[in-house]
Amino acid sequence: MIQRVGFKAAATRQRTGAVVLLLLTVSALSAATSTAAPITWSLTLDTPTQQGAAGTVLVYSGTVSNNAGLELLLSTGVVVFDRPSVGGVIWDFTDEFLNTLGIIEPTGYSGPLFLISLPANAQPGAVISGRLELTAFPPASPLTLDSTFRASVPTGSVPEPASGLLVALAVLITVSRWKFRVR
């Protein structure tokens, strides 16, 4: 009977010890996180406004700076469209940015961030605007940053038919005058 009580007492001590160890670990992690200096960072796009013909791919490059001297761990990244006037727009992160595995070194990252594929049926004058949002784990400050962008399909300058006829008539008159002067 004493052995059973001892076994229960030992089991109780083991459970209590495990709970205390768990609480100490959690409090140590939260203390380390709360006492660590926040990692300040920034996000900028090099050329946030770009134009491209229908069916082309626009690559947006930029810089994710890390000002704390520690690795910055990204948790999420997304492109949010505010105004897609075109259906079928596709976006993706570039391979170069994905190769960071979401870890921004203390030196930061500069290079291609994401791309937007304009659909082949995009009409001239179509505009796509939105923002790149990156979120980092604490102790980053702020946790989420964004940078706006704009993509558009240029409008072609197609002269009206009457203008083309006027230009052709002017060329014809000039050539005929030149021909008669040469003789």
What's this, in brief?
By secondary structure, this protein is of the alpha+beta class.
Q: H/E series, N to C?
A: HEEEEEHEEEEEH
Radius of gyration: 32 Å
CATH level-3 fold name of the largest domain: Immunoglobulin-like
Beta-strand content bin: 35-45%
**Percentage of residues in helical conformation:** 25-40%
- Helix and strand content put the structural class at alpha+beta
Please give the number of β-strands.
Answer: 10
Q: Mean pLDDT across all residues, rounded?
A: 76
**Oligomeric grouping of the chains:** single chain
Largest sheet: 5 strands, mixed
Number of folding domains? 2
Please give a structural write-up.
The protein folds into two domains: 35 residues; 114 residues, Immunoglobulin-like, CATH 2.60.40.10. Helices cover 33% and strands 38% of the residues. The chain contains three helices and ten strands; from the N terminus they run H-E-E-E-E-E-H-E-E-E-E-E-H. The strands form two sheets. Strands 5-7-3-1-9 form a five-stranded mixed sheet. Strands 2-10-8-4-6 form a five-stranded mixed sheet, with no helix packed on it.
